[in-house]
Prior knowledge:
Layout: H1 4-41, E1 48-50, E2 53-54, H2 55-73, H3 83-106, H4 112-135, H5 140-165, E3 175-177, E4 180-183, H6 188-204, H7 211-230, H8 234-250, H9 257-281, H10 283-293, H11 298-301, H12 305-318, H13 322-325, H14 344-373, H15 383-399, H16 409-424, H17 440-449, E5 454-457, E6 460-463
Helix pairs in contact: 1-2, 1-5, 2-4, 3-4, 3-14, 4-16, 5-7, 5-16, 6-7, 6-8, 6-15, 7-9, 8-15, 9-10, 14-15
Amino acid sequence: MMGDGHHSRIFRSAVSRALQKESRGGRIFLILMFVTLVVDSMPGRGLGIAPGLSAKNLYLYIICFFIGARSVMNPYGLRFSDLNVHIPFLIIIGYAFFTLSIRSIFDPTYNTLEAIKTLKNRELDLYLLMFIFAYLLSCRQDFLRVIRVFMVFMFIGSFITLIDFLNIPDLGIVGTHRGRIEGPIGAANQYGTLLAFLLPISIATIPENRPVARWLWRFGILIFAILLIGTGSRGAYVATVSGSMFAVFYLREYMDLRVVGRVAIGGLLTVIVLVSAFLVFNPEFFQSLRDKTATGDLESASSGRWAIWGAGFGVMLEAPYSFLVGYGWNTFDNSGIWKSAHSEYVNRYFELGVIGLLAFIYLLWSIIQNAKRSLHRAGEDTHRLIISFIFAMFILAVNVVFVIPYKAGSFIWIIIGLMMGVQRTLDQPLRQPMAGTGISETADFMRFDEKRAVNYRGGERRSFGKQRKAVPK
């Protein structure tokens, strides 16, 4: 006779294999979503299916539908965490749509269709990207694996960018503008914003137990640094330095200042070496940067941003109510001032007023605060990663003073969503699914069903949970 323990092990093994398949499937879905997004973001290589519908959007909506269907069939529903992130994000989307509606009624020159498209691309799709990367997976190990795969793809893309920039060989994939590397997303400032954000994440994810992989990872980080310098994005330079300083002060009780000092000195020496090498290879690039920065003219030093921001506030003075409620969604680009505000904060204030600006600041601050609160629950596998994520968020918060990351934003919110998932699963063992996601309830059912499981052998029904007589083989 086979004992109850044998049947229990068989049942657990079967459910475990089912969970592993579902976990692997979720990772594959997200990795394919990322690859689709990369191809769709490259200039001239969009994956359009129909007018207004790209492969990225179709794939995104399918995954959202899958998460919704899973939550409906799950008796526990979908358990939202980090409501202080979801609520301000949804407030921004809702208020933007409200101002869009009002503007379309009272302004006959307002391009409503263009505004709706922009709202979907810049706000709704970013929220959905964050949502699926935060909620499709259910255990911490899966989130950590996807983050590392994400970084590997970024390293590969950066390596291709570098050899294309150096013409060894000339692949014709990556463009340049006035000697500045634009990267695969086709804009130097956008690429600089993305690299500055990813730099601390890449340092925190260095493999520990694989020497070859560790050195390859360090080589990828070095390429990140080279390309960051090559973008010529002074906003990214300032954000990397000042954002890191803010993060050190904010995390001072978690940081060893001696280690911080050694890292800062090592980083400074690395930058000096890279800048010297870059100066030899491309002296005209640094000459143009020096001319812009050392003119003494604030407008030239800010690449015209100061004049653009001043003109924007001047237009707001013509209608003082706009300081409170804004001019309405997607109005700055069509205001005749300039094609872009070149500042996320200025753009939010101009279009959505105090409501939109404060909601956006609160959104960034909530993400940072949630990460810091999770540090006391973090283990060895996540503590360094969460600290690096806080560094990345401070760098981003400074960087968007000088840029609107409309191209880099998709990749940034993917990382934010993955880190939200990591923090959500900190109280669970590394490989245990999180409650409220649909997968963990299968495991709960497994434990519950052991006492009620039915085994048919020789046409006779047996209940494992009751005292019973022996049944002959």
